[in-house]
Write a structure and sequence with these properties.
By secondary structure, the chain is an alpha+beta fold. β15 and β16 form a beta hairpin.
Length: 495
């Protein structure tokens, strides 16, 4: 017997769960399989950047994440058991009407983020099949057959590898990874319970010439709405083998801080790694796509990995659904690799720069400036735009004009036809916003039409905003819009 599904998602981490949520809300059947017997238990990717907060707002989970998360605490430098002063890890960034979540990242332990995404998936009727280890893939022109160590094979029209840096799917496809070692020495990350430290600061213990022959930094960060702290430690010796046991971590903490071994009361999860930056040689092979760490591995510095991974899923979800359910041309799926590979490469460079102390956390790490200018799905028809103007391919800004809150208008799986300060289509509810309508009509299934008065974040014009919140097409009027719509599977009638 064989199980059939539209999309097989291999891996139930943040990438796989985010993709499953996006597909479920679009009515596209996806099967999520996970090799482990439960969701990942660690805090590893704990920073949710402003752009990803916008994604989670669209998914309907941001309120839950905020309730279980918090802002990053101010760093505190320690030496010889004494506080030496505060350490600011982030450049200050102010929120604006156009960028309402700008500022510091939201801190949520990765296990909590996954629980919230899993709950949302369940609410939408989806589920995860745990204990399913992929052992083989075979694809033809019509679909992909996946086989597992136990259980029935799965025949899917498309497969997405969201199974991490050691991706079984990527290995089965024979896709290589190209990159570099960021730091030859190992690092350790663990979730611990510890006494003797306040929960108001992120505690930093710089390396000293004391008894720790392996050297390296150590930091202990309280995780909001838990009793846990995240411990991160580096080692100067490339041959060091971090001891992940309770006794090993107690010794490490006692050697590098003023705390006693018994102050570490529990190790809840621990892992070691060597920071590396590498990217898959391609993000697609036939009907199989790579997303998240299966496509790019990186230093955790700067909090870019989980965020880039979730946004991989956000980019791919609407395209798969459009091809599977909305009769969009299959060529639409080519844009995933075109758009996400440059973003991943940029993220790897940024993470490496932060790791090496060459880049500060701030505007660059918030991911609000990332976009797809110059790609096939970014069509800008206006000419003579001033420097700094919003263009096709850019993230669509938020704001409220004439009672229309743009993020509310964008929220959901639809496209949005936004007319700003010029003649254009009427609102879907027929409300007169004081902006004259273009003679004729502009209609399409799956498109919400909205118009607002002039707004400096947009300038003026007609903007077709993609389901993932980027401007796909922009013009002074709706002329030429129908041709673009055909590329993405929409049927727009302008008369």
């Amino acid at each position: 017997m064989t199980t059939h599904t539209d999309v097989l998602i291999v891996g139930a981490g943040p990438t796989g769960l985010a993709l499953a949520v996006d597909l479920a809300r679009r009515g596209t059947h996806a099967l999520v399989v996970e090799r482990a017997d439960a969701l990942f238990p660690g805090s590893r990717g704990k920073g949710i950047q402003p752009r990803t907060q916008e994604v989670f707002d669209d998914f309907g989970v941001l309120d839950a994440l905020r309730a279980q998360g918090g802002t990053y605490p101010v760093g505190m430098i320690w030496q010889d058991g004494q506080r030496q002063g505060e350490h600011r890890m982030f450049d200050e960034v102010e929120a604006t009407e156009a960028e309402p979540y700008a500022g510091h990242a939201l801190m949520v332990p990765q296990w909590r983020t996954q629980e919230i995404l899993f709950a949302r998936l369940t609410e939408l009727g989806g589920s995860v099949a745990f204990g399913r280890e992929l052992v083989g893939l075979a694809q033809d022109a019509d679909g992909v057959t996946a086989s597992f160590a136990s259980g029935t094979p799965v025949l899917a029209r498309y497969v997405v590898a969201a199974d991490g840096g050691r991706s079984a799917v990527r290995r089965a496809l024979g896709i290589g990874m190209t990159g570099e070692t960021v730091d030859p020495a190992p690092a350790l990350v663990a979730d611990i319970r510890v006494t003797g430290l306040d929960r108001d600061n992120w505690h930093f213990f710089p390396p000293t010439d004391a008894a720790d022959s392996e050297g390296g930094f150590l930091a202990i960060c309280p995780l909001p709405h838990t009793e846990d702290f995240q411990l991160a430690a580096g080692f100067a010796d490339p041959s060091a083998r971090p001891d992940l046991s309770l006794d090993g971590i107690r010794k490490l903490v006692a050697t590098r801080t003023h705390l006693a071994p018994d102050d570490v009361t529990e190790v809840r999860w621990a892992s070691d790694f060597r920071p590396r930056a590498a990217m898959a040689d391609r993000f697609r092979q036939g009907r199989v796509f790579l997303a998240g760490d299966a496509a790019h591995v990186h230093s955790p510095a700067g909090g870019q990995g989980l965020n880039t991974s979730v946004q991989d899923a956000y980019n791919l979800g609407w395209k798969l659904a459009a091809v599977l359910r909305e009769n969009a041309p299959a060529a639409l799926l080519d844009s995933y690799e075109e758009e996400r590979m440059p973003i991943a490469a940029q993220m790897l460079g940024l993470s490496t720069g932060v790791h090496r102390g060459e880049v500060r956390r701030g505007v660059a790490t918030q991911q609000l400036g990332l976009g797809y200018r110059g790609c096939a799905l970014a069509v800008e028809t206006r000419v003579g735009l001033p420097e700094g103007a919003l263009r096709a391919g850019d993230r669509a800004p938020d704001g409220t004009r004439a009672g229309v809150h743009l993020f509310d208008a964008f929220r959901g799986p639809h496209w949005t036809l936004l007319t700003v300060g010029t003649e254009g289509t009427a609102d879907t509810d027929g409300t007169d916003t004081g902006v004259p309508a273009l003679p004729g009509t502009c209609t399409s299934t799956g498109v919400r039409a909205v118009r607002i008065p002039a707004y400096e974040a947009y300038g003026s014009g007609v903007f077709l905003v993609r389901p993932d919140g980027y401007v796909g097409w922009a013009g002074e009027s709706a002329r030429g819009l129908a041709e673009y719509a055909a590329l993405v599977g929409l049927t727009v009638h302008v008369s």
